[in-house]
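Bug: token stream looks shifted between consecutive jobs. Job 1:
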Amino acid sequence: MPGRVAERTTPSRGEITEAAAATGVLVVDPVPWLCGAGGTCPVVREDTFVHRDDRHLTESYAEAIAPVLDQTMTTLYGTDLSRLPEPVRPR
């Protein structure tokens, strides 16, 4: 129907994990930084709003978790970022 925005479909965690494993890609799950242990995702953490809307983090929260993401990425990939990852080739 003209004028309607198509609904987005979000892949499940299982689909993402399966696709990543099939292509040799590592997945960093952001849920621990966004939601509590019980699965509740707060609007505000400490003094910072978490979400700008239903799909985007606020700039201030993204800046707040950047050091944690940096540490995670360094653990996974090391500190030599001059190398490029190998391209994924279709099977």
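Job 2, same session, no restart:
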Amino acid sequence: MSTCSQIDRGIIPEGARVLTLAGTRQIAQRKPAWMKRDVPLAGPVYRELKKEMRGSSLHTVCEEARCPNIHECWELREASFLIGGSVCTRRCGFCNIASGKPGEYDQEEPARVAETCARMGLHFAVVTGVARDDLPDKAAWLYAQTCKEIHALLPHCGVELLVDDFGGKRALLEMVLDAQPQVLAHNLETVERTHRHTRPAFRYQRSLDIMRHSAAYAPAIARKSNIMLGLGETKEEVHKTMQDLVDAGCQILTINQYLQPTHNHLALQRFIHPDEFAAYADYGKSIGFIHVEAGPLVRSSYMAGEQAIKAGVWRRPTEEDERAIAQAREAAQAREAALEKAGV
């Protein structure tokens, strides 16, 4: 089968609406076979972490988003966390997070996230958050402090910070980079033609500038982004976006399938066949990405530790590291037990 015929195998749902008709009735559709997967048997580490998180006051994004890859990532002791609250000051047409005026700024959250990472004995943590344009620092301190707190309790734990654009204020980006995460991620999400409609509070070039300035200011920190497909983009547009990211200094790219959360969100235009994802991965490697993770069920945080390894900014723990992680975990569990006993 030729590459062209493979790429043409993407499924366009019957009744698909044009991109501009967000808010029309959700498309009645049956997901293709490749969008389904058998849930793997729970491994010993996954069962251990699930037991540890049961009853915890802090939950991972992996659990709340019902990520299909949670078994793989947790088995490697990798997990993702959302900080800054549950209300975002921006409204992207694809995102299911509530938009509005956020509540208070919880400055104890970084310590709680770090404690949870320690209790889980994590090897790699991805930290993302809602946009907080209501704050003078747009939550830059929150990202930076969370990274510092994790490294203080778990020196070997790798950290990826998935941030917004901080309104284009480079000083705020530098505050985050100064915390020395292993990976700085900012998701471009879509091609230039659909970007303004899809992410009205963001700007395509401003997002690329996150990559450019990060590369110039902190070249030792790996840079990463994500593109989702299924919003009406063409192959040529995807290739151009990938090239724009490489030219801006992006090193790691994830590419995934957009799924319409509700009928109030941007309408899905097409299911992308796995062969097309594979073709994009090959193209990405040919133009200079260190690593491209592309597939229908890929999420931007999928196998984040492995991506960091390929970028040369992190390694798996040694036996000595594992002993230190185990000690930090026992200490965190003891602190949790003491708080519960005190009724805090």
